Amino acid sequence: MLPSTSRRAFLSSSLASLAATAMAQEKTSPPGTAAPEPVIDIHQHTHFHQRGDDHLLAHQQAMGITTTILLPAGTPTSRPSTHEGRSNGLGAQCLGTETCRKIAQDHPGAYLWGANEVTDQDTAPAEIEKWLKLGACIIGEQKFDVECDSSQSQKLYELAAAYHVPILMHFQNERYNRGYERLHTMLAKYPQTTFIGHAQTFWGNIDKHHQPKDLYPKGKITPGGLTDRFLADYPNFFADMSAGSGLNALTRDEEHTTAFFQRHQDKILYGSDCADHFGRGPGCQGAQTIAMIRKLSPTQAIERKILFANAQKLFRLG
User: What pTM value is reported for the model?
Assistant: First the structure.
């Protein structure tokens, strides 16, 4: 296992690079203007819907992201958990861990990287552990058709706890990480594991009256859904604001969103999960999410937590 002191040194070096980047921006900003505030994006991918690395880098820069965490796909395979190969590449043609690590090595401080493998591959724990020893800072994105409390999933929860890294999970009804209503049993069983929830079923369940088959629900929200309760009841559960599902949850009931931000201000993390090439304009869901977080946060302090400070703390970047 990578010693915790080595991991802290690795991650602290990233924060030092981030600080240097911010200082450089401040020096080049026009007189009398403030440097951009740092933003951590915990959810991006390489080769996302065939997007090239040059467009990925430009996209993140245009959005004003100062640190990006790249989440790899697992090994391509044909088995039920990948829908006989149809969901390889996280269902979006994303590439594997080595591509994420290379970008992070080429852009120290600006990029960090995760480790991943198909959950029910016999070699998954060993494969992921190999990358954790080399400095991966997260497990995921776990996006496979398994039960969220399966024995194979639990091996990865144990691994995440052992290496003190989060595990990020895509919850989608009848497709990925099934059994969200039972997730609380895993949150309780593995209190030393940090779980990050993401995607349609996760965000739909902020509403007490959520209908499981409705992946992008609209209209007013009644607090007290499963996600609302899990975030309140389990210190080891966090929310990834990324993708169309996250943006939909932000915009469907703005009054609820402001109260939700107030309630869970220490648990929400900004992620983009955006395949756009340009980082701006109506086609960039990641930039829209940043704008809505800034618009709906009840205070600037809470906005800063969601866009930067919560991830900084969770990934021990300071």
Answer: 0.90
